[in-house]
Write a structure and sequence with these properties.
- By secondary structure, the protein is of the alpha/beta class.
- It has 2 domains: 138 residues, 3-Layer(aba) Sandwich (Cobalt-precorrin-4 Transmethylase, domain 1); 124 residues, Methyltransferase, Cobalt-precorrin-4 Transmethylase, Domain 2, CATH 3.30.950.10.
- The protein contains 11 helices and 10 strands.
- The strands form 2 sheets. A 5-stranded parallel β-sheet has the order 3-2-4-1-5, with helices on both faces.
- The longest helix is centred in the middle third of the chain and has 13 residues.
Length: 285
């Protein structure tokens, strides 16, 4: 089902009675696309895709989501991938501003949630400084959606009363030095670590030094909720060796904690191959 059929009153789509906000020319919407599965888009996000004149998207937005953009919309790749040529953040921000001032409806589409370990806050501040009106549409972050699709609850009463989200990659390109890893290791029962693959050895060393057990369960959730979704389970002590043995690459979420064991009961409820048929059907339209 396309966004057009969702929102067109004349076609009687199931959400046609909803009154969603207009997307005026000259505005920028900072929208979270979720972790990959287009079914995880919010109604606001789907509505924005239907209305936008230009979609400026990052590298983590799945192709299946981009196919929901309205026919004729300009699709602009503005992804930033470590170690690969990519647009600079100032260039991306300037383009958003210029497009909006040219009277375009500009959709800045970001994987996951725009304000979780992304550059959404930087872009929003730049829009404010330039006098460009904007709207923020939160999305399902990979640290929630990816875990659920892997059969790993973010919280369960028998395992944890706390969870911490942390990035393993600072703006400098190194492990963040403004994180107290020892305190983090001792305080949060479950750790969800974004962008941790490259610096995994250093992160593991810090967590072990902070008192975590090398036998603690760990999982890599790769390309979460997309057709390429896969899960590799390990332990904190074996994580680096298993990363290399299984060819784990970014994008991947790392989750550490007893909740990982629940995958033995809950994993497998979702089959990534369902997205293959979605992509084939969408491409044929």
């Amino acid at each position: 089902m396309t966004t057009q059929s969702l929102f067109d009153r004349k076609r009687g789509g199931p959400f046609a009675p909803l009154s969603l906000p207009p997307f005026p020319p000259g505005e920028v919407w900072l929208v979270g696309a979720g972790p990959g599965d287009p079914g995880l888009l919010t109604l606001h996000a789907a509505h924005a895709l239907e209305q936008a004149d230009v979609v400026v998207h990052d590298a983590l937005v799945d192709e299946a989501v981009l196919r929901l953009a309205r026919p004729g919309a300009e699709i602009v790749f503005a992804g930033k991938r470590g170690g690969k040529p990519s647009a600079s953040q100032p260039d991306i921000t300037r383009r958003l501003i210029d497009l909006a001032k040219a009277g375009k409806r500009v959709l800045r589409l970001k994987g996951g949630d725009p304000f979780i370990f992304g550059r959404g806050a930087e872009e929003a501040r730049a829009l404010v400084a330039a006098g460009v009106p904007f709207r923020v549409v939160p999305g399902i972050t990979a640290g929630i959606g990816g875990l659920a699709y892997a059969g790993i609850p973010a919280t369960a009463r028998e395992t944890n009363a706390a969870i911490a989200f942390v990035t393993g990659h600072a703006a400098s390109g190194e492990v963040p030095d403004n994180v107290d890893w020892t305190a983090l290791a001792r305080s949060a029962s479950v750790l969800v670590i974004y962008m941790a693959v490259k610096h995994l050895a250093a992160i593991v060393d810090r967590l072990l030094a902070g008192g975590r057990s090398p036998d603690e369960p760990l999982a890599f959730i790769c390309a979460a909720t997309t057709a390429r979704h896969r899960v590799v389970t390990s332990t904190l002590g074996r994580a680096v060796a298993d990363r290399d043995a299984h060819g784990v690459e970014a994008p991947a979420i790392v989750v550490v904690g007893e909740v990982v064991r629940l995958r033995e009961q809950l994993g497998g409820w979702w089959d990534p191959s369902v997205l293959d048929s979605f992509q084939t059907d969408s491409a044929a339209e």
